[in-house]
Amino acid sequence: MPGLVLGLAGSPRRRGNTSILLDRALAGAADGGARVARIELCQLRVAPCIACGGCFRSGACVVEDGFQSILPQLLEADAVVLASPLYFLGLSGWAKAFIDRCQCLWARRYILHQPLPPTSDGRPRRAAFISTAGTPSVPFSGAIATVKAWLRTLDARYLGQVLRAGVDAAGAISGDAGALEEAYRLGRALTG
Ligand SMILES: Cc1cc2nc3c(=O)[nH]c(=O)nc-3n(C[C@H](O)[C@H](O)[C@H](O)COP(=O)(O)O)c2cc1C
Question: Total domain count for the chain?
Answer without folding.
Answer: 1
